[in-house]
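# step 3/5: fold
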Amino acid sequence: MAREILLYDTTLRDGTQGEQVSLSAEDKIRIATKLDSFGIHYIEGGWPGSNPKDARFFEMAKKLNFHASKITAFGSTRRPDLSVEKDANIHALLKTETQVVTVFGKSWDLHASRILGVTLQENCRMIEETVAYLKRQGREVIYDAEHFFDGYKQNSSYAMETIKAAQEGGADMIVLCDTNGGSMPKEIEQIMAEVLPNLSVPVGIHTHDDCGLAVANSLSAVEAGATMVQGTVNGYGERCGNADLIALIGNLQLKMGYTCLEPGKIKQLTELSRYVSEVANIPPLSHRPFVGKSAFAHKGGVHVSAIMKEPAAYEHIDPATVGNRRRVLVSDLSGKSNIEYKTRELGIKLGGNGYTSEKIVEEIKRLEDQGYRFEAAEGSLELLIKKVTGQFEEPFRLESLRVSIEKNRSGPSTSQATIKISVGNDYEITAAEGDGPVNALDNALRKALTKFYPQIREMGLVDFKVRVIDGSDGTAAKVRVQIESRDSKEIWTTVGVSENIIEASWQALVDSVQYKLSKILNGK
């Protein structure tokens, strides 16, 4: 039977120490609920003695029923100048009424003597007394040995004394921490092999990613006997982050044969990663292993030709295993295989002789030479393929447009767009204002089209990006505009290129609207 590895999530505490990561108490509750439904064993909610927000989270958590997860309060050992019974931070931990409490203490003699300013013997007493007191209060106690690996490398006998003090106090689990993230996998493995025979309690691992090795170090520790891994969803955390719990789960369960989750739960891995990213308001990393948008994306024609015959040729797992999906990108590197795969995915029919595929490839390469990028603009790509194959009928035609910008000596500038379009034999002329010229264009186009296609009101703009393709021409350089739009069913991206930013924006805007209208007219 596969050995079980306990999953300890510290996204809500250690993860929020990362730059640009900020979670309200309500955000934390939402994420905790998601982690519980996913099957995480321990959820570290925060440090109740450090700020009102974390204290409020624990008050809110008391009112909820967590089924798979144990909510955990985090704090430090008692202060040097206080008995454990009189330490306000210890009382704040107990006030949370959590079943589990995690406390950290110093394992590195440098930290004890120079940072805390206590004797080495007093540091050990602080650890043992704190753990023993919390155990007497009926709590499950996890002891985090901060800076353990650095301390062990400098003074192994004292580092061992500190964790034995936690063991003597009755700790249920001792977690060895690579707090500075500077250890190598071989060091982790060797030190774990020396430490474990001297302990009678289970051991966990907590690593940071300052050398890009947090996941590798955690996996090495598990191989050496650790039974708990601590990490954060998407690797959020201070400096370079913590061990990414998403990658840890994928590797432990799918590659190394350990049991972390209940059967079938790993299919929610991608959903969990993106959910936490959304709540934290941090764009998901496309190249994140297992769950990233690009994790199973194929661009080279040779690769695509191979996966059409046998996906395992260029994929280490079936993307559906972790709730992700295969993506075939189309660019100037594409061959016929990319086009054939992509058209099947989009439900577009091609001729069987391969000529149409070649024609599409040629057109894509011609346009990408001018600065277009279709791998990140699949809405424009779909329209292009339909146009080349004669399967696209324009839902409207532009007859004329005018954009004006007025700027007075004081006050903001104003923009106005006037547009004339035709739909069949009908014409519509309208004008609209906007915060800028592109916004005015967007407003005018929507206003004109609403008469013919009222469903256009469902559509909204998500993102607008402008990039100079080659800056050597200064303000006359070509620009590429990328627009991301959405409705209640999907998100799509379109692109436009021109030396004129208004023209490039218009191209991307029209593609965005035409993509939406093509779905409406086809009943999708």
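# step 4/5: annotate
The first strand starts at residue 6 and ends at 9.
# step 5/5: archive (pending)
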